């Protein structure tokens, strides 16, 4: 999600500062290990900023509309939520699910999510884990992730989609929500190991994060090429995707 502060103070980057990393050899050719420090800084940002994370949800009408859209999505059965953050989406998932398991690496956001879901209609099981290392111990009917895909470096996307596929039971669906290119108001950083932006917290501290603004068409084509069935629609500058992984008899 693009924080309100970033939207309000949109920076104009001069030509050449670039909206994307300009290293030679496309992202898929890079060693994914190059981005370890960037991913650690991204996590540090969410840990340090946990207390201010919810502000855009209070301030931005389109985020509330997006949250409400969950009620029309095919969330069902046992649900796995990846990068659950402060649990903005978790109670809505719990209202539609048989069970919810919510994973995030930051203890600080998980504490807020636990408090937010204390009275949810279903008990939520929280797991603190690094999604780039964690492997699902079982399968789920729905794997949901909001504002996470844009934080996955392109070189790690194939592995991420494989993890999602491995987490889905037969007939299960991945459902994802994120910023589209129309929401690309960020302080974009050049020459990073993955597309990246600079985020600032209230105390003035600054952190690099991964930020990939997927457009619906390219994301659809990429997933289709990997054998997934996918539908993506745009909603107020964001996108909502519903995808099913390849089955053994589809290839
Ligand atoms: C943009 S927030 C999304 C939170 C929530 N899904 C939402 O939409 O409000 C990204 C989340 O990813 C989590 N995160 C960052 N790095 C992670 C990692 N390596 N493994 C698991 N979670 C991570 C952060 O703690 C943060 O809660």
Q: Can you characterise this structure?
A:
The structure is a single chain. The chain has 251 residues and is α/β, with parallel strands linked by helices. The chain has one domain: Vaccinia Virus protein VP39 (Rossmann fold), CATH 3.40.50. The chain has 8 helices and 10 strands. The longest helix is centred in the first third of the chain and has 13 residues, at 36-48. The model is unreliable at 5-28 (pLDDT under 50). Bound molecules: S-adenosylmethionine. S-adenosylmethionine binds next to helix 2. Residues 79-172 form the Methyltransferase domain.
In short:
This is Putative methyltransferase protein. GO terms for molecular function: methyltransferase activity. The chain is an alpha/beta fold.
Bound molecules: S-adenosylmethionine
Report the major sheet: 7 strands, mixed
Mean pLDDT: 87
Q: Tell me the structural class.
A: alpha/beta
How would you spell out the order of helices and strands? HHHHEHEHEEHEEEEHEE
Net shape: globular
What is the CATH architecture term? 3-Layer(aba) Sandwich
Using the coordinates shown, work out and report the CATH topology.
Rossmann fold
Q: Write out the CATH superfamily name.
A: Vaccinia Virus protein VP39
Q: Please provide the count of β strands.
A: 10
The figure for the number of domains is: 1
Low-confidence stretches: 5-28
